[in-house]
Amino acid sequence: MLYAILCYHDEAAVCAWSREQDEAVMARLGAVQERLAADGTLGPVVRLMPTTAATTLRKDVEPPLVIDGPFAETKEQLLGFYLVEVAGLEAALAIARALGAANPGGAYELRPVGHFHPGALPERRPASEAS
Asked: How far apart are CA 25 and CA 32, in angstroms?
């Protein structure tokens, strides 16, 4: 089953990290990502640019309105996401817990993905073919 693990955090707090703090968090996350890639569960990983770079198309008005910034003003912003292929929710939660241990603060939202392009994930070889 494919899950999206959406990463939320206070953007102002994350943007205030020093280069060293950011690199340390990215290194810890990288270690988790390497383990997930090795076992074939890791799909695309995305780190979004700050909301100041966002553009929103509001389609609830006619004609649709293009505005600068994110769709909603919230305390925590969507900063990125992971796509993982796992057996079910418990396995996705285990990954989110590992990511959470590597990255202080914020929250992870897990959502099953209903449609995907199979070529977007690394091919998984049966255990009998792995060597």
From this structure: 11
**Sequential pLDDT tens for the chain (131 residues):** 899 999 999 999 999 999 999 999 999 999 999 999 999 999 999 999 988 888 888 888 899 889 887 776 677 889 999 999 999 999 999 999 999 999 988 999 999 988 656 665 555 544 444 44
**Residue 101 corresponds to which tokens in the numbers above?**
């241990």
CATH 3.90.226.10 correct for 2-118 = no
Full-prediction pTM beyond 0.90? no
| Residue extents of the structural domains in the chain | 2-118
Cβ-based burial of 100 (10 A; exposed 0-12, middle 13-18, buried ≥19): middle
Angle at 94 between CA 49 and CA 131, to 5 degrees: 95
